UniProtKB/TrEMBL annotation:
One of its GO terms (molecular function) is aminoacyltransferase activity. Belongs to the FemABX family. Pfam families: Acetyltransf_6. It comes from the Bacteria. The keyword Magnesium does not apply. This is Methicillin resistance protein. GO terms for biological process: cell wall organization; peptidoglycan biosynthetic process; regulation of cell shape.
Protein backbone atom coordinates (compact mmCIF):
# COMPACT_ATOMS: atom_id res chain seq x y z
CA UNK A 1 0.00 0.00 0.00
CA UNK A 2 1.26 3.46 -0.90
CA UNK A 3 1.69 6.16 1.74
CA UNK A 4 2.22 9.86 1.00
CA UNK A 5 3.90 12.35 3.31
CA UNK A 6 5.35 15.83 3.01
CA UNK A 7 9.07 16.64 3.03
CA UNK A 8 10.32 19.89 4.57
CA UNK A 9 14.09 19.64 4.19
CA UNK A 10 15.99 20.66 1.04
CA UNK A 11 18.66 17.98 1.08
CA UNK A 12 16.19 15.18 1.71
CA UNK A 13 14.04 16.33 -1.21
CA UNK A 14 16.86 16.95 -3.67
CA UNK A 15 18.39 13.56 -2.84
CA UNK A 16 15.11 11.99 -3.98
CA UNK A 17 15.12 14.05 -7.18
CA UNK A 18 18.66 12.91 -7.92
CA UNK A 19 17.84 9.28 -7.07
CA UNK A 20 15.24 9.13 -9.83
CA UNK A 21 17.15 11.45 -12.19
CA UNK A 22 14.34 13.96 -11.88
CA UNK A 23 13.93 17.15 -13.85
CA UNK A 24 15.46 20.40 -12.50
CA UNK A 25 12.00 21.98 -12.41
CA UNK A 26 11.25 19.43 -9.70
CA UNK A 27 14.22 20.60 -7.64
CA UNK A 28 13.75 22.42 -4.34
CA UNK A 29 15.50 25.46 -5.82
CA UNK A 30 12.96 25.86 -8.63
CA UNK A 31 10.10 25.73 -6.18
CA UNK A 32 11.76 28.40 -4.05
CA UNK A 33 12.27 30.65 -7.06
CA UNK A 34 8.60 30.39 -8.02
CA UNK A 35 7.57 31.10 -4.42
CA UNK A 36 9.87 34.14 -4.18
CA UNK A 37 8.86 35.71 -7.48
CA UNK A 38 5.23 34.82 -8.11
CA UNK A 39 1.86 33.76 -6.74
CA UNK A 40 2.98 30.22 -5.92
CA UNK A 41 3.84 28.19 -2.86
CA UNK A 42 5.79 24.95 -3.13
CA UNK A 43 5.18 21.70 -1.28
CA UNK A 44 7.09 18.46 -1.71
CA UNK A 45 5.60 15.02 -1.16
CA UNK A 46 7.17 11.57 -1.20
CA UNK A 47 5.29 8.36 -2.00
CA UNK A 48 6.46 5.25 -0.11
CA UNK A 49 5.63 1.58 -0.30
CA UNK A 50 6.21 -0.45 2.85
CA UNK A 51 8.39 2.37 4.14
CA UNK A 52 10.55 2.61 1.01
CA UNK A 53 10.30 5.76 -1.16
CA UNK A 54 9.14 4.95 -4.69
CA UNK A 55 8.52 8.44 -6.06
CA UNK A 56 7.55 11.99 -5.29
CA UNK A 57 6.32 15.30 -6.60
CA UNK A 58 7.02 18.97 -6.05
CA UNK A 59 3.64 20.69 -6.25
CA UNK A 60 3.30 24.41 -6.94
CA UNK A 61 0.08 25.80 -5.51
CA UNK A 62 -1.64 28.98 -6.65
CA UNK A 63 -4.61 30.52 -4.89
CA UNK A 64 -7.60 31.19 -7.12
CA UNK A 65 -10.55 33.58 -6.71
CA UNK A 66 -13.56 32.31 -4.81
CA UNK A 67 -15.02 29.73 -5.15
CA UNK A 68 -12.20 27.75 -6.78
CA UNK A 69 -9.75 27.81 -3.86
CA UNK A 70 -6.51 26.80 -5.64
CA UNK A 71 -4.85 24.98 -8.50
CA UNK A 72 -1.80 22.71 -8.34
CA UNK A 73 0.95 22.29 -10.92
CA UNK A 74 3.90 19.90 -10.88
CA UNK A 75 6.25 21.01 -13.69
CA UNK A 76 7.86 17.93 -15.24
CA UNK A 77 6.66 15.86 -12.32
CA UNK A 78 6.43 13.39 -10.77
CA UNK A 79 9.91 12.02 -10.10
CA UNK A 80 9.93 8.22 -10.17
CA UNK A 81 10.70 5.26 -12.38
CA UNK A 82 8.66 5.51 -15.59
CA UNK A 83 7.05 2.14 -14.91
CA UNK A 84 5.42 3.55 -11.76
CA UNK A 85 4.58 7.01 -13.07
CA UNK A 86 0.82 6.50 -13.29
CA UNK A 87 0.36 5.16 -9.76
CA UNK A 88 2.68 7.80 -8.30
CA UNK A 89 0.83 10.57 -10.15
CA UNK A 90 -2.52 9.21 -8.94
CA UNK A 91 -1.31 9.02 -5.34
CA UNK A 92 -0.06 12.60 -5.50
CA UNK A 93 -3.35 13.77 -7.00
CA UNK A 94 -5.23 12.25 -4.08
CA UNK A 95 -2.87 13.97 -1.64
CA UNK A 96 -3.60 17.32 -3.33
CA UNK A 97 -7.33 16.64 -3.11
CA UNK A 98 -7.13 15.94 0.60
CA UNK A 99 -4.47 18.40 1.73
CA UNK A 100 -4.82 21.37 -0.63
CA UNK A 101 -8.48 21.08 -1.64
CA UNK A 102 -7.51 22.39 -5.06
CA UNK A 103 -9.71 22.28 -8.16
CA UNK A 104 -7.11 20.40 -10.18
CA UNK A 105 -3.55 19.10 -10.47
CA UNK A 106 -1.64 19.67 -13.72
CA UNK A 107 1.38 17.56 -14.71
CA UNK A 108 3.54 17.44 -17.85
CA UNK A 109 6.12 14.68 -17.32
CA UNK A 110 9.06 14.40 -19.71
CA UNK A 111 8.17 10.90 -20.88
CA UNK A 112 7.02 9.26 -24.10
CA UNK A 113 4.41 6.60 -24.76
CA UNK A 114 2.72 6.46 -21.34
CA UNK A 115 -1.07 6.50 -21.00
CA UNK A 116 -2.06 8.16 -17.73
CA UNK A 117 -5.45 6.46 -17.82
CA UNK A 118 -8.80 7.45 -16.39
CA UNK A 119 -9.06 10.65 -14.42
CA UNK A 120 -6.45 12.58 -16.39
CA UNK A 121 -7.65 15.05 -19.02
CA UNK A 122 -5.47 16.63 -21.76
CA UNK A 123 -5.06 20.30 -20.91
CA UNK A 124 -3.49 23.56 -22.02
CA UNK A 125 0.29 23.38 -21.78
CA UNK A 126 2.64 25.46 -19.69
CA UNK A 127 5.79 23.79 -21.06
CA UNK A 128 5.97 22.72 -24.68
CA UNK A 129 5.71 18.97 -25.27
CA UNK A 130 7.63 19.13 -28.56
CA UNK A 131 11.31 19.64 -27.87
CA UNK A 132 14.87 18.73 -28.92
CA UNK A 133 16.86 16.24 -26.86
CA UNK A 134 20.53 15.23 -26.87
CA UNK A 135 21.49 11.89 -25.29
CA UNK A 136 24.44 12.50 -22.96
CA UNK A 137 25.11 8.88 -22.05
CA UNK A 138 27.64 8.44 -24.87
CA UNK A 139 31.22 9.67 -24.60
CA UNK A 140 31.90 13.30 -25.52
CA UNK A 141 33.50 12.50 -28.86
CA UNK A 142 30.48 10.45 -29.92
CA UNK A 143 28.07 13.17 -28.80
CA UNK A 144 29.93 15.71 -30.93
CA UNK A 145 29.97 13.42 -33.97
CA UNK A 146 26.24 12.82 -33.54
CA UNK A 147 25.30 16.49 -33.64
CA UNK A 148 22.86 16.53 -36.52
CA UNK A 149 24.24 19.33 -38.65
CA UNK A 150 27.71 19.28 -40.13
CA UNK A 151 27.51 23.08 -40.18
CA UNK A 152 26.92 23.13 -36.42
CA UNK A 153 30.13 21.18 -35.88
CA UNK A 154 31.99 23.46 -38.29
CA UNK A 155 30.69 26.60 -36.59
CA UNK A 156 31.69 25.30 -33.15
CA UNK A 157 35.25 24.81 -34.35
CA UNK A 158 35.30 28.10 -36.28
CA UNK A 159 34.15 30.15 -33.30
CA UNK A 160 36.99 28.74 -31.25
CA UNK A 161 39.53 29.45 -34.00
CA UNK A 162 38.23 33.01 -34.28
CA UNK A 163 38.92 33.70 -30.62
CA UNK A 164 35.51 33.18 -29.02
CA UNK A 165 35.94 32.10 -25.39
CA UNK A 166 33.22 30.57 -23.19
CA UNK A 167 33.23 30.61 -19.39
CA UNK A 168 30.86 30.27 -16.42
CA UNK A 169 28.98 33.48 -15.65
CA UNK A 170 29.34 35.41 -12.40
CA UNK A 171 26.97 37.81 -10.67
CA UNK A 172 28.89 40.70 -12.26
CA UNK A 173 27.87 39.36 -15.67
CA UNK A 174 24.13 39.76 -15.03
CA UNK A 175 23.78 43.34 -16.29
CA UNK A 176 25.52 42.83 -19.68
CA UNK A 177 23.87 39.41 -19.94
CA UNK A 178 20.40 40.90 -19.47
CA UNK A 179 21.19 43.66 -21.96
CA UNK A 180 21.79 40.95 -24.58
CA UNK A 181 18.60 39.19 -23.49
CA UNK A 182 16.52 42.34 -23.98
CA UNK A 183 18.04 42.84 -27.45
CA UNK A 184 17.30 39.23 -28.40
CA UNK A 185 13.73 39.39 -27.09
CA UNK A 186 13.03 42.60 -29.01
CA UNK A 187 14.27 41.09 -32.28
CA UNK A 188 12.64 37.67 -31.87
CA UNK A 189 9.44 38.91 -30.28
CA UNK A 190 9.20 36.98 -27.00
CA UNK A 191 8.31 38.33 -23.54
CA UNK A 192 10.68 38.57 -20.57
CA UNK A 193 10.34 38.70 -16.83
CA UNK A 194 11.46 41.84 -15.05
CA UNK A 195 15.23 41.96 -14.54
CA UNK A 196 14.70 41.39 -10.81
CA UNK A 197 13.44 37.88 -11.58
CA UNK A 198 16.75 36.84 -13.16
CA UNK A 199 18.73 38.35 -10.29
CA UNK A 200 16.58 36.30 -7.92
CA UNK A 201 17.11 33.19 -10.07
CA UNK A 202 20.88 33.53 -9.92
CA UNK A 203 20.70 33.09 -6.15
CA UNK A 204 17.66 30.82 -5.78
CA UNK A 205 18.90 28.25 -8.30
CA UNK A 206 22.29 27.85 -6.66
CA UNK A 207 23.26 24.20 -6.93
CA UNK A 208 21.47 23.57 -10.22
CA UNK A 209 22.53 26.71 -12.13
CA UNK A 210 24.80 26.28 -15.15
CA UNK A 211 25.15 29.74 -16.65
CA UNK A 212 27.71 30.47 -19.38
CA UNK A 213 28.75 33.47 -21.44
CA UNK A 214 30.70 33.72 -24.69
CA UNK A 215 33.16 36.58 -25.21
CA UNK A 216 35.51 37.94 -27.81
CA UNK A 217 38.31 40.31 -26.82
CA UNK A 218 36.57 40.78 -23.48
CA UNK A 219 33.20 41.78 -24.98
CA UNK A 220 30.18 39.60 -24.16
CA UNK A 221 28.51 38.10 -27.22
CA UNK A 222 25.96 35.61 -25.92
CA UNK A 223 24.78 33.74 -22.86
CA UNK A 224 23.05 30.46 -22.05
CA UNK A 225 21.33 29.76 -18.72
CA UNK A 226 20.57 26.14 -17.85
CA UNK A 227 19.28 24.30 -14.80
CA UNK A 228 20.79 20.84 -14.39
CA UNK A 229 20.27 17.69 -12.35
CA UNK A 230 21.47 14.13 -12.87
CA UNK A 231 18.41 13.63 -15.03
CA UNK A 232 18.30 16.64 -17.33
CA UNK A 233 20.11 19.79 -18.35
CA UNK A 234 17.27 22.17 -19.23
CA UNK A 235 17.75 25.36 -21.17
CA UNK A 236 15.95 28.21 -19.42
CA UNK A 237 17.11 31.41 -21.12
CA UNK A 238 19.61 32.54 -23.70
CA UNK A 239 20.50 35.33 -26.08
CA UNK A 240 23.06 36.49 -28.63
CA UNK A 241 23.92 39.89 -30.10
CA UNK A 242 24.72 40.67 -33.72
CA UNK A 243 28.48 40.30 -33.26
CA UNK A 244 27.90 36.99 -31.54
CA UNK A 245 25.87 35.78 -34.50
CA UNK A 246 28.61 36.87 -36.89
CA UNK A 247 31.24 34.96 -34.91
CA UNK A 248 28.95 31.93 -34.40
CA UNK A 249 29.43 32.33 -30.65
CA UNK A 250 26.11 30.71 -29.80
CA UNK A 251 27.27 27.43 -31.42
CA UNK A 252 30.40 27.17 -29.29
CA UNK A 253 28.45 28.31 -26.24
CA UNK A 254 25.85 25.57 -26.65
CA UNK A 255 28.56 22.95 -27.07
CA UNK A 256 30.24 24.26 -23.90
CA UNK A 257 26.93 23.89 -22.03
CA UNK A 258 26.46 20.36 -23.39
CA UNK A 259 29.94 19.40 -22.18
CA UNK A 260 29.26 20.90 -18.75
CA UNK A 261 25.94 19.05 -18.48
CA UNK A 262 27.64 15.74 -19.22
CA UNK A 263 30.33 16.48 -16.65
CA UNK A 264 27.58 17.25 -14.12
CA UNK A 265 26.17 13.77 -14.79
CA UNK A 266 23.00 14.70 -16.67
CA UNK A 267 21.52 11.96 -18.82
CA UNK A 268 19.87 14.21 -21.39
CA UNK A 269 20.23 17.77 -22.62
CA UNK A 270 16.85 19.40 -23.32
CA UNK A 271 16.90 22.44 -25.62
CA UNK A 272 13.45 23.31 -24.24
CA UNK A 273 10.71 23.54 -26.77
CA UNK A 274 10.28 23.76 -30.52
CA UNK A 275 8.09 26.22 -32.38
CA UNK A 276 8.04 27.13 -36.06
CA UNK A 277 10.66 29.84 -35.77
CA UNK A 278 14.31 30.59 -36.37
CA UNK A 279 15.30 29.72 -32.82
CA UNK A 280 13.84 26.24 -33.29
CA UNK A 281 15.68 25.85 -36.61
CA UNK A 282 18.90 26.58 -34.72
CA UNK A 283 18.06 23.98 -32.04
CA UNK A 284 17.32 21.33 -34.65
CA UNK A 285 20.87 21.65 -35.98
CA UNK A 286 21.98 19.79 -32.84
CA UNK A 287 19.54 16.85 -32.89
CA UNK A 288 18.35 14.23 -35.37
CA UNK A 289 14.71 15.15 -34.91
CA UNK A 290 12.20 16.40 -32.38
CA UNK A 291 11.15 14.56 -29.25
CA UNK A 292 7.49 14.75 -28.23
CA UNK A 293 6.56 14.17 -24.60
CA UNK A 294 3.08 12.96 -23.68
CA UNK A 295 1.82 16.50 -23.05
CA UNK A 296 -0.01 18.31 -20.26
CA UNK A 297 -2.80 16.70 -18.26
CA UNK A 298 -5.16 17.87 -15.54
CA UNK A 299 -6.61 15.71 -12.81
CA UNK A 300 -9.90 17.30 -11.68
CA UNK A 301 -10.04 17.22 -7.89
CA UNK A 302 -13.56 18.54 -7.29
CA UNK A 303 -16.74 19.54 -9.09
CA UNK A 304 -15.52 23.13 -9.50
CA UNK A 305 -12.96 22.11 -12.15
CA UNK A 306 -15.38 22.29 -15.10
CA UNK A 307 -16.73 25.68 -14.06
CA UNK A 308 -13.21 27.03 -13.54
CA UNK A 309 -12.12 25.87 -16.99
CA UNK A 310 -15.20 27.43 -18.58
CA UNK A 311 -14.47 30.75 -16.87
CA UNK A 312 -10.81 30.67 -17.94
CA UNK A 313 -11.85 29.94 -21.55
CA UNK A 314 -14.33 32.85 -21.46
CA UNK A 315 -11.71 35.26 -20.13
CA UNK A 316 -9.25 34.10 -22.78
CA UNK A 317 -11.85 34.66 -25.53
CA UNK A 318 -12.63 38.14 -24.22
CA UNK A 319 -8.94 39.05 -24.13
CA UNK A 320 -8.53 37.86 -27.71
CA UNK A 321 -11.58 39.85 -28.77
CA UNK A 322 -10.28 43.01 -27.11
CA UNK A 323 -6.84 42.48 -28.68
CA UNK A 324 -8.46 42.07 -32.10
CA UNK A 325 -10.46 45.26 -31.72
CA UNK A 326 -7.35 47.13 -30.58
CA UNK A 327 -5.38 45.89 -33.58
CA UNK A 328 -8.19 46.90 -35.94
CA UNK A 329 -8.24 50.38 -34.45
CA UNK A 330 -4.59 50.92 -35.28
CA UNK A 331 -5.10 50.53 -39.07
Amino acid sequence: MLAVEEIHEIRQWNDLVERWHGHPLQSWQWGELKAQTGPWTARRIVVSEDGTPVGGMQVLIRDMPWPFNAICYAPRGPVCDDARLVEIANACAQWCKTNVKAASLKIDPAVEGIDLGDGWKPSEHVLLDKTAIIDLTDDEETIFKNLHSKKARQYIRKAGRDGVVCRPATREDLEPLLKIYHETAAKDGFPLHADEFYHAAFDALDGINQVFVAEHDGAMLSFLWNATTSGTAFELWGGVNDEGKRLRANYLLKWTAIQAAKQRGARIYDLNGLLNDGISDFKLMFVNGPTVWIGSFDYPLNVKYAAMNALIALRRALRALRAGKSASGRH
